[in-house]
Model the fold of this input.
Amino acid sequence: MIADLSLANDFGQILDAFWRGSLGTSSALFSGTLVRAIPLTIVGVGVSLAFRAGVFNIGGEGQLLLGAVAATVVGLLLPNKVGAAGIILTLSAGALAGAAWAGIAAVLRNRFGVLEVISTIMLNFVAANLVSYLVRGPLQEPTHTYPQTDLISAAARLPRLWSETRLHAGILIAICLSIASWWFLTRTAAGFRVRAVGASPSAAGISGLVDASSVTARALLVSGALAGLAGSIEVTGVTYALYENLSPGYGFSAIAVAVLARLHPLAVLGTALLIATLETGALGMQRDAGVPSVVASVLEAMAILVVIGIGGRTGASWRWRKRRAHAGAEA
Amino acid sequence: MSDIGPFLEAAVRTATPLLIASVGETVSERAGIINIGLEGCIIAGAYAAFAAGTSTPSAGYVAATLAGAAVGVLLAAFSVFLRRDQIIVGTALTMLALGATGALFRARGEDASLVVVTEPAAVIPLLSSIPIVGRAFFAQPAIAYLALALAIAVWWWLQRTHAGLSLRAVGDSPSAARAAGIRVGLVQTGAVLFGSGLGGLAGGALVLAQAGSFAEGMSAGRGFLAIAIVALGRWRPAGVMAASVVFGAAMALQFVVQALGWNLRYELVLMIPYVLTLVALGALGRGAAPAMLGRAPVYD
Amino acid sequence: MSTEKPERASPTLELRGVVKRFGAVTALDAVDLTVERGSVHALLGENGAGKSTLMRVAYGLTAPDSGSIRLFGQDRTGGGRPFSVRDAVRAGVGMVHQHMSLVPSLSVVENLVLGGTGLFRPGDAEALLDRVSGESGLSIRRRVLARDLSIVEQQRLEILKALARQARLLILDEPTAVLAPSEVDELLRWIRAFAAGGGSVVLVTHKLREALAVADDVTVLRRGRVVFVGRATASSEQSLAHAIFPEGTRESSSFPVPSVGDVVLQADALDVIDARGVRRIRSASFQLRRREIVGVAAVEGSGHRDLLLALAGRQPVGGGTLRLPQRVGLIPADRERDGLIPEFTLTENLALHALGARRGLMPWRGLAQRMTELLKQFNVVAPSASVRARSLSGGNQQRIVVGRELEQEVDLVVADNPTRGLDLQATEFVHARLRDAAARGAAVVVHSSDLDEVLALASRILVVFDGQVKEVAVDPHLVGRAMLGAA
Done:
């Protein structure tokens, strides 16, 4: 009996820790969960776009880091009084860097037939090592004590919505991007081309005269740009500097965000909030109840499997591409 | 240069887990299934070897293989049985295994031992005394020789048995295989379990014959390197062996960079295997992949 | 004194009461079939009648919902396990499939022994190939991969595979569909020789003439039921045609040859390269004019597929010139893969046409209206324009594709096997639409693996052989020979 009670106590303690870490207090909600949902939304939107086009962009993590690097560099160089242009410049730099990083994978895919799953994951590792190198070398802060950069100039920082919380203007960007992608996919010809190529590149090519490889390349670039933008928003809105482990795996969580949303850009808003809650709650559990926070990624992975198992649209109508060097068997 | 010998020795040691994982993945891909969860198999095997390897290395290796195969059961269930997309399922499995091993490792607490007993080198007399290459090729832990034996055995099995022929048929044309009476689902499940079991074994080798301990995420992309190695080796064990050694050498650079006198920052050296993968895949292309690789077979 | 009646050997194959349903569709409705020893049995019926399904049951590829299978006098459907391919092979059944089942990347010898057990010894396998090849009189190149074999060689290999497993019952599923006329004659001769030697053959076909030329017995299937069984000698083409199509066919009578208009497509020394960069068509020169229907006759592998895609502007031109009109309609050979997106709605599939050139926003409302109109105009059986294309039958799907491509005025129509797998009604519909398009001023170029269909539709014939394009008079013998490269 006493053992039962203590078990129930433990369980209650864990739930309580989860609640307090994610949504239970206003600080957890506004400075934790919502802030975390921002990069998850933006990268999630990018991943959904790519998956819809049939491109498996697993490189969100690396593209995000490159965006963070670019934003940090610009942010460090900006003089202090430039106004809104400063932030726009910084964020654009991040998006461009992310797009360029994804562009490497796009070129490798279209010209050399390299699987984008492999190349984007390789680029993740390169990006992580690049960040380590930069913050211990060329970009390290002046005292050379810590593996991080100096703080970026005030002109490059995203304003907070309320000064008591960490919630910054990035959340508005995230919501706008989500709506814009939905509108793009459902209302525009370019968006329909993305959907068609993702569903059946051969039908899109033969019946629609769509250049499938340029559509997928562009989708990959946009996906990278969004991840890079998310990285630059993290730097300009939250961290104000670059350091190792800046991203606690946003690039991978975003895959769960996208798959759970069944690749629907508006639903991404909801699933990003869900995953953010899960992750901040897990951190709370670790802090107050000793449960390792990494169980969150276990739950995310299981959620992906469940959604996949149920079936339906998960980017699963992807077919193996016949690449340039592929000696395929079909006549 | 007196450092070539130790470098080669490190290269072969580092190449061993890559070779084991790649051989397994070759079998899986020749049957038409690409295992993006191979990274998960490796880390699962690494953790299992770590958790069980306090007794003898053999127990550790068995545990590692079983752990890898357990991940493979999920891949078989979702991608062979339910015919869901292999790439996403594999990605989820990698995330699952990385998270689960991380959680289990952290939950062990501060006082748990971090170090396991590693396999000693099984030194072959006479041959190991050959200058430069002697220790590299003939003074490795037994698992290295096992890796080589596996590669040769798989080559022979693919070319000289009907089971191997059937597997090759399944990866190229499942409908033709089925018309010949071959049980496609069974073959693919077996291939997946074999490949992921070897992936787990590779993780075991990583812990028991290389690192000597466990760290979260220690697989460091080896699963994806193995997939690249299979493509670069043109899905043949001989090519896979050659590619594994090259990548093993690239990974071993981090251990000998100072001894080699290079003035290259450590983090940049760590990048080399991944950049090498991109360059090599770009230069050598995909070649003749099994026609049905990655596709869920459609039966008429 | 009792006289012993001579034992009559039991039939090779007896199917009784076979039923097979796929969801709501009954593909086979209590079908009986008896194949006697040493005989050739023709299984006739139009597309979709159930012929292939019945044979897949006999070969163990498909398990029937009910019914019995007796092979060489023994019941195979008892005993717990369903009848499998291995059981069929062990019982002496061999099947040559409609869509070849050879593994492209494996060699001839490896394909021959595929499905065995134990060790694989190439030497033994080659010896087996030699023996079976000699016994049957079918020769084949040996040191090549299956994908490098010609169509005839592939078919021979399939037969040799069956014979290597000591098949005494051969099931041939539409074997002549992809052969040139003289190759057909050769095959039919071989079939008669095989039967004369004591083997049995089931010939699944929709070609009445061939069936009557070679068969001893005939069974006609219609919509999953047996509508006629009898001796071939007692039947005529007319009586069989009547059994297959009781409502009678619309005469493929001579349609009035319209006055041909000006040139819409001009090819001069045209080279066409395929996706792998191989040159499939060499130096082709011809013209297509308004209001004419030009047929393309070719065997598999001659490059006609790439030629048609090039005429529709979907394939790169390697050399020479090709002058194309603006508005081209394309009915691709593979409907499910190239013509439609099965998981998209019908309206979305309509929007596929010329999608590459669209700019700005998608006019969904207008598209939905046009689709609803099209459904009515083309008699498509579908609840609305917002259902998914995969929920429609093959015939209705093809109506969608044809409707989409011909809905608006076009200058050129390119059709590749537009009636494959369609029943009679849908086939006639497609033919009518093609003639209609020509009458309205378009040039129509159409290819079919069925030479009779090409001859019935076309006023001019282009034969493609090994990358060469040549115009040939509309005469079945001349065309047939040209398809094989004979002068």
